[in-house]
Amino acid sequence: MIFAAILAGGIGSRMGGTDTPKQFLDLGDKPVIIHTIEKFAINSKIDKIIVLTPQNFINHTNHLIEEYIGENEDIVVIEGGETRNDTLINSISYIDENFGIDDDSIIVTHDSVRPFVTHRIIEDNIEAAKRYGACDTVVPATDTIVESINGRTIESIPVRDYYYQGQTPQSFNIKKLFNLINSLTEEESNILTDACKIFALKDEDVYLVDGEVTNIKITYPYDLKLANTILEDQHD
Amino acid sequence: MINIVYRLKSPKFFEESIDEIELDGVVVRPTFLSICQADQRYYQGSRPAEILDKKLPMALIHEGIGEVVFDGEGNFKSGDKVVMIPNTPCGEDVCRLNYSYKSKFRGSGFDGFTSDLIKLEADRVVKLPDDFNNHVSAFIELITVAYQGISKFDELTITPKDRLGVWGDGNLGFITSLLLKVIYPESEVIIFGKHQDNLALFSFTDEQYRIHDVPKDLVVDHGFECVGSSASQTAIEQIIDLINPQGTINLFGVSEYPIPINTRMILEKGITIQGNSRSEREDFIGVVKLLDENPQLFDYLEKLVTNVCEINSLNDLKEAFDQDSISKFGKTILKWNK
Q1: Is B188 helix (H, G, I), strand (E, B) or coil?
Q2: CB-based contact, A40 to chain B, within 8 Å
Q3: Which residues of chain B register pLDDT less than 70?
Q4: Could you tell me if B253 and B319 lie in one domain?
Q5: Residues of B with CB under 8 A from a CB of A
Q6: Share of residues in chain B with pLDDT > 90 (%)
């Protein structure tokens, strides 16, 4: 089976100016999270969509799905975790308990705050996860990356051609991901905030899927303003 | 739902844009697209400046096939291979809807097919058999233009159809000649062209002539002009010369300039001139049936595929248009991975 995990567990501390997590703010005439779920809901290859939110937003998310998407038994809302990895582990546990995990089970994990993800990116993720076991969606780095350890002076400037900016989805063979997470020491678990990093650390290949410059993450108030402006521009 | 559309912002410059689509029709993921001269005229900026100002930014391309992603009404299954109809009627009319002022056209009046997803009404999508060649299917729309012209020609003619002359050795001339051979197997199809290397590909026609080297006593019952631009003037002149009385001249070639026509001889021979442009649903259904019943047509039509470009980025799309613009003959097919 192919599962999508929409990660909406974060409380959006970087957003500022509002107490509502950014995924629940409106983009155009719908909340950001609904735009994101829609992209997965129309994809017939995806068997189940698991939306992971803070505990106190589960009911709210269910109401929004009912209002904007309608009753859909393939979408379920469950509680996310403290960290991104905890959220991921919650989704895997849910899959294991309710559907079981076989050798071919795939999970496509996606930030709820990236509503501009394309159908093509999702399809490429499914294909790459099936073929290679793990993939990450990236775009080539456009800004020069500067490394500074002390925050005051430059340590090094890596060759930009070798650097990419990570987006989502990140997709995995669930069994492989599950085994790798379980093999982590507590120390490793604390520093591994990114699932692809777990694969990389354990010398497992992670395939690159081409992202899109439009697949932006709505992190700051400016991002939402920008996204709304772009969307409104189309309606003029 | 949010959708990403790749629009021509100004000549030779594409950009990503964000659009929204409603999920009340059929949602299609484009797979194979084909560049038409009309797209090239926007890309190169050769349309008048006021037209470019009015129409851009706009996604180009009106020839293409795709896979159904979603259909709320259940007419199509996800994964169905379909051809998309660019003509989009916005009301009833007394004429064919491809000529109606109430119709809009993709890549001309509104966005064409270069996007992540395309939402169409269910009647703007026609299912294709899975085994149809993708490269040829990408330009089914162009075949339907010839097909609808021939259908109208069939209703119009009152004199015999024994000798049918086609002017123009380009893509549309090739397709029109081929369809005439299949639809009227008893008729002789004669091709008139300018380029010896192109004419060599018309071996399925009964006779091939270079326009400056036509036998004096040669006549045709009806003529099909597939030349376009200012060169259509000499083609129409020659058709009028060679056509039998009360024949029909079927115009297909687009010109940016007004073309003078010898009306005196039109009157004297009682010639009927019929214009042709675009196509409608019945033409798509007709062409799909024709291709299904005559699979040998794919072998012929594949000769028109001269470039196949994989499109993974907007730069790839630009390069495909540049490559297409220097091709003298044939179709540029875009394998749409963007």
Answers
A1: strand
A2: no
A3: none
A4: no
A5: 1-2, 4, 16-20, 23, 27, 29, 69-70, 78-79, 116-117, 312, 337-338
A6: 97
Q: What is the CATH number of domain A2-137+166-235?
A: 3.90.550.10
For the segment A92-102, the average pLDDT, to the nearest whole number, is: 96
A207: Cβ contacts below 8 Å, ≥ 6 apart: A128, A131, A132, A134, A135, A136
Helix (H/G/I), strand (E/B), else coil: A201: helix
Please give the Cα distance from B100 to B88 (Å, whole number): 10
DSSP 3-state percent helix, strand, coil across chain A (nearest 5): 40, 20, 40
Q: Which of A84-88, A115-119, B203-207 has the lowest mean pLDDT?
A: A84-88
List CB contacts (< 8 A) between B2 and chain A.
Answer: 35, 38-39, 115-116, 231
- Which amino acid type is present at position B46? S
Please determine, for the modelled complex, whether the ipTM score is greater than 0.95.
Answer: no
Whether B172 and B251 share a structural domain: yes
Of A42, A116, A235, the CB nearest to B4: A116
Dump pLDDT digits (tens) for B50-107: 999 999 999 999 999 999 999 989 999 999 999 999 999 999 999 999 999 999 999 9
Domain count, chain B: 2
Chain B contact present for A200, CB below 8 A: no
What does the block give as tokens for A155? Answer: 């340590």
Quote the domain boundaries for residue B196.
Answer: 144-275
Q: Which neighbouring-strand residues pair with A36?
A: none
Flag whether residue A226 sits within 8 Å of chain B, measured between CB atoms.
no
Contacts of B194 (CB under 8 A, 6+ apart): B169, B210, B211, B231
Question: What is residue A234's predicted lDDT score, i.e. its pLDDT?
Answer: 64
At B295-306, the pLDDT tens digits run: 999 999 999 999
Cα–Cα distances in Å, from A60 out to A10, A51, A53, A99? 15, 12, 10, 25
- Name the strands in the sheet holding A207-210, side by side, starting at the edge strand that comes first in the sequence: A75-79, A48-53, A2-7, A106-111, A164-173, A134-140, A207-210
For residue B124, give the CATH number of its domain: 3.90.180.10
